[in-house]
Write a structure and sequence with these properties.
Layout (H helix, E strand, L loop, with lengths): L16 E7 L2 E6 L19 E5 L2 E4 L14 H4 L11 E2 L7 E2 L11
Antiparallel strand pairs: 1-2, 3-4, 5-6
Length: 112
């Protein structure tokens, strides 16, 4: 592994892609293994480290909350109370396949 983690970008294996972002102003991909690590900033906007605890044991990228695909072992990122209040308008999520999905209106930090 490179010390600047450049080997974790521009993934040619789609099963390793965590999300899409600009790196040095070029569209690229970042490995799912770099998500939420906060050890190095690869994306120009720091997107790879924009994560939330949705349950006490599940820390997940914000673009993967309420995206209709469970990422937490207990499914907390999809079953959480925050998924019951979504926007009507959609936006492109940069995680996974870049799906157009509604977003949670608020993030509940009480783990209801």
């Amino acid at each position: 592994m490179c010390t600047n983690f450049v080997d974790q970008t521009n993934c040619s294996d789609s099963s390793r892609v965590g999300f899409h972002c600009a790196i040095n102003n070029y569209n690229s991909t970042v490995s799912k293994y770099m998500e939420c690590k906060d050890i190095y900033h690869l994306c120009d906007d720091g997107l790879e480290n924009t994560c939330e605890y949705v349950t006490p044991l599940c820390f997940v990228h914000k673009h993967k909350i309420c995206d209709q695909e469970p990422d937490c072992p207990d499914g907390g990122d999809e079953n959480n109370v925050i998924c019951s209040s979504l926007t009507i308008q959609t936006c492109t999520r940069r995680g996974r396949l870049g799906l157009e999905l509604p977003i949670p209106i608020l993030v509940d930090r009480r783990f209801n």
